[in-house]
Amino acid sequence: MNLSPIFFAGPADLAGIRIGHKATRAAPRWAARLSVLCLIALSLCPSLAMASAIEQLRSFASGTSSARGEFLQQQVRANGRAGEASSGTFAFTRPGRFRWEVLKPFEQLIVTDGERVHFYDKDLKQVTVRKVTEAVGATPAAILFGSNDLETNFTIKDLGASEGVEWLEAVPRSKESGFDRIRIGFRTGLPVAMEVLDSFGQTTRFVFRAIDRNPKLDAGLFRFTAPPGVDVVQ
């Protein structure tokens, strides 16, 4: 099982890209990490219609204490061919708690209570547990879900607007991050898309929709107890 990739290594849909290719069970393990990364991205952006992407990112980080929404995820291989597609829901609350749930085509769940991250694969009946510090480190998660000190581990620049979306690019300072760069697109203060290019030339794209900012979320969403019969790997 590998629900931890993006969170810890990192590879990303524009509002108009079609996502609907049939997925295979043998999806790359980093696909879930990307998912987390995504969610993390969501944990940081606000409501500035004409602001640059960096300004919107920082504003979202300071003005959003919690959020929930839906995501679409599409992998694109290095040769340009479409890979796995998935969809589901996400939720987060500061500080440091989030839930990323893949509903289709296979059920997977990533949950953190701020101290530990649980990667649960329902079909494989297995859950992997990691400390948040081990899982995140100097990754996109550190930018999107952690502190507002974005320049510590990443070089960030605005890419300008395209079709009504303001884009930024973050390049990790560490050569061992597992990904080359991440791009995040904002519209009216909310993240609408993310694209992550990994070290193998593969891209994972995300589309975010139905985002609800600052809802009151049940604390139980960010706790995980392994069901009976599930293997726990720590």
How would you characterize the overall build of this protein?
With 234 residues, this protein is of the alpha+beta class. It has helices spanning 5-8, 30-42, 53-63, 132-136, 140-144, and strands spanning 66-76, 82-93, 97-104, 108-112, 116-121, 126-131, 154-162, 165-172, 179-187, 190-198, 203-213, 231-233. The radius of gyration is 16 Å and the shape is globular. Strands 7-8-9-10-11-1-2-3-4-5-6-12 form a 12-stranded mixed β-sheet. The longest helix has 13 residues, at 30-42. The two termini are 13 Å apart. Helices cover 16% and strands 41% of the residues. It is built from 5 helices and 12 strands.
Could you give the order of strands across the largest sheet? 7-8-9-10-11-1-2-3-4-5-6-12
Share of residues in strands: 35-45%
Percent helix: 10-25%
The gyration radius over C-alpha positions equals 16 Å
Q: What is the number of beta strands?
A: 12
Order of helices and strands: HHHEEEEEEHHEEEEEE
Structural class: alpha+beta
Low-confidence stretches: 1-30, 44-48
Number of helices: 5
Span between N and C termini? 13 Å
Q: What is the averaged pLDDT score?
A: 76
3D shape = globular
Question: Main beta sheet, described?
Answer: 12 strands, mixed
Task: Fill in the keyword field for this structure.
234 residues, alpha+beta, twelve-stranded mixed sheet, 5 helices, 12 strands, 16% helix, globular
